Amino acid sequence: MGKMNIMWGYVILSYGLFWGLVLALCGTASMVFHASPLTMRILSDITAWSPTFAVLILYRKLKPNTKFIDFLKNCFHGKLKISLFLISGLIMLGGTFSTVGIVSLLEGKPFKNYFSLVGYSFIVSFFLSLFSGPTGEELGWRGYLRPEMNRKYGFLKGSIIQGIVWAFWHTLLWFIDSEFLDWRIIIYILSNVIVISSIALIMNIFLEIEENLLYSIWIHFCFNLPYSFLKVGISYYAVMCIIFPILACALYFYYQRIIMKKDEEKNNSNNENVIV
Question: InterPro entries annotated for this entry (predicted)?
Answer without folding.
Answer: MmRce1-like, Rce1/LyrA-like_dom
